[in-house]
Amino acid sequence: MRSAFVLGLLKLGLTANGQEAGLTWQGGTLGGATGGGGGPTWLLAEDFEGSNGGFDLAGWSAVNVLPNPDYTVHVLSGTQSCALTNLAQCGAGHTYSAPSSTNYFYIQLFLLNYPSSGHEGQFVEVDGSGYNLALKVTETGRIRLQDTGSDKAITNNGMATNTLYNVWFAYCQGSGANGFAFACFDSSSTRPTAGNQYCSYASMSGATAPATFYLYNGAQTYTQVVIDRVRIDDVPIDTAP
After folding, report:
1. I need a labelling partner for 119 at 20 to 30 A (CA). Which of 42, 94, 217, 225 fits?
2. Is 83 helix (H, G, I), strand (E, B) or coil?
3. In a domain, 8, yes or no
4. Closest listed residue to residue 44, CA positions, set 31, 25, 59, 29
5. 17 lies in some domain
6. Pairing of strands 121-128, 212-217
7. The total number of structural domains that make up the chain
């Protein structure tokens, strides 16, 4: 699995602590106040309420073992959510067509437990041609950005277990070593653009558009997470949809 998020023709302008400050690319400014995503024009929208084996969308493919999209113990939205629980390397991938080199991602996330000491658990990944961007959770609930297997950025604060969080992330395509990515979380509906619950990295690999989105628990430490309301768009998702 190799992941990719892409945002192209860019010019980076970051503050010393990595907050968004004038990152521009073909089409606008990253993190601009454009509202809550594309509504009916989502590139991908999944609420786990459907009849395709529990998925709304047809076309999800198993990664080793499918997660449980009919989970009803801790429901985050609607009547059921998707649980990646107690199975190492369980996951599902879905391809989608990215019309732009800038993609924004949103999920609801609920941690049932932390990874065991000294380990981290992955929960989502986006793949492109020859590279991937993964989000992992540490043993203290911090979110780590990983670029094609290499750790690149991490939030200062961590998420609590048994708490609903909104998680946002994005990737801006570069020419191979100058892409930009961020990840952040909050229990409120507004996306952080700096601070202890935000991290970013300005030298991402990859120079192609995204191709596949994965829900994925690759931990051998049995990290248990629940996910809902997956959204992908090519305009900023600044509030929880």
Report:
1. 94
2. strand
3. no
4. 59
5. no
6. antiparallel
7. 1
